[in-house]
């Protein structure tokens, strides 16, 4: 696989992992996390989108973010948090209203995050995906509650990528081109990202 083809494929995967999810973070009215939201037109206008991921999945997530950033005016500012401190950091941030726009979550914690109102309803955005039926059904079911979608899968080891708070003044873009399957399966090279203090 050529570098150009791989980069295009990663950009598509980035769109799958980030595009629909990031868009969903821009749907809520100001003043709260989780819950129903009023639609907002997506715009690729250079908005900065904040995202947290665990150190154990940083290679893959960094590749997704790099590909997304390379193909969009909007930019994802990724913070890598040490694995052992991640759940405490998310819990503390939820309690203080300091969550990022997007978080990566393990399937074990996703139902609890939904019940706590940390994740927002992204059903409209998920239903609009032309590849919705190709998303891993088992992982999709973990991100569903009462017939609504709150998360989409990114990888089988880090299957959740979910929006967390109101950003009604922010706008995100929909992905430009999305593949149905991961290209080639080769592991991307690690790129440095900034790490959060614990």
UniProtKB/TrEMBL annotation:
Q: In its UniProt record, which GO terms are filed under biological process?
A: maltodextrin transmembrane transport; maltose transport
The record's listing under Pfam families reads: SBP_bac_8 (PF13416)
Gene Ontology cellular-component annotations:
ATP-binding cassette (ABC) transporter complex, substrate-binding subunit-containing
Task: Provide ranges: composition bias, Low complexity.
Answer: 153-166
- Keyword rRNA-binding recorded: no
Signal peptide extent: 1-28
| Matching Gene3D superfamilies | Periplasmic binding protein-like II
Does the keyword field hold Transport? yes
PROSITE patterns per UniProt: PROKAR_LIPOPROTEIN
Family, similarity comment: Belongs to the bacterial solute-binding protein 1 family.
**The protein's name:** Putative ABC transporter substrate-binding protein YesO
Q: Which gene encodes it?
A: yesO_3
